[in-house]
């Protein structure tokens, strides 16, 4: 077993059944410590519970890239900083495993079991493999295959989110919730109202995960409306504030700042009354006040959601 286990042909042979091989765990640990490359290993269904693949005494973990670990038993495995990039961990059992600092980029994580696993500082993809492939197929016109991959991506994002929430890693959980909602949107009809509404929610708040988006939208709307007030004109008592080509640059700049002030007051629905709209500025002010009250309520909801986790 020992000589065969150290042979590259054995480890990479897709037909070799390693599910019932005794001493497989010890052989793989020995191979890792030998320093020889471990790429493309076929470990489908392998019994590796409790395996120790920690590169002790080094800040860099062992490399086990592009491995097939479909349904592998990795319960209670010690995988600190293990580089698993490109591997298939589909339906692998990693319950109570130590994945601290492991690299799981480009991995197939569909159906992975992570109950009780240590997930601190895991290196994740911002977009899972299924989502990236689905987008490629979608752009090529293969919609049916793309939708199937988007469904798998949504399921995987949801599974990871739930495990991360249980582990108290809410920042990463929020990232996967956002991706979950994005791939759900991609499954909607392309030109439907549901998809447009979902896109707008993502744009304005990142599905509740990005309070900064709400702030940036608010600042953008205030600036745009302030500029429009400057162009159409507002009243300050008997004096008109707005663009006037007959007055100097500094006077126009002062009127612009006053219009921005009026925009802030209107957006926040304070309504001091020192400046009032007239003509085309009236419907614009009504629109800004309505959107402003809604946006401030949205910001409170999103901010509280983030801060109370």
Automatic annotation (TrEMBL):
Keywords: Membrane, Transmembrane, Transmembrane helix
Record's keyword annotation contains Manganese: no
Species assigned in the record: Pseudomonas benzenivorans
Domain Potassium channel: from-to ranges: 255-308
Protein name (database record): Pentapeptide repeat-containing protein
InterPro entries: 5peptide_repeat (IPR001646), K_chnl_dom (IPR013099), Pentapeptide-BTB/POZ_domain (IPR051082)
Source taxon at top rank: Bacteria
Keyword flag Electron transport: no
Transmembrane segments: 214-232, 284-304
